[in-house]
Amino acid sequence: MKTPNPLNMLERQPDKASGAWVFKGTRVPISAFFENLKDGASIDQFLEWFPGVTRAQVEALLDYKFAALEQIAIC
């Protein structure tokens, strides 16, 4: 199964959430996801706390970040 393009799952608009990257269709910044993970929350907890965010959005974001790290390792 093909992974969704993360750019289709995220958006950034100057007049929405102070211009921060958010999960598309929400006002939830992607930074909130990483802050919650850092504080020990699970993905399931995050999805429960932010019901507008979908698992597909979270997985696309994680896939994107992992691919970015792989590119750094190659350089």
UniProtKB/TrEMBL annotation:
InterPro entries attached to this UniProt entry: DUF433, Homeodomain-like_sf, WH-like_DNA-bd_sf
Gene3D superfamilies named among the record's database cross-references: Winged helix-like DNA-binding domain superfamily/Winged helix DNA-binding domain
Domain of life: Bacteria
Full protein name: DUF433 domain-containing protein
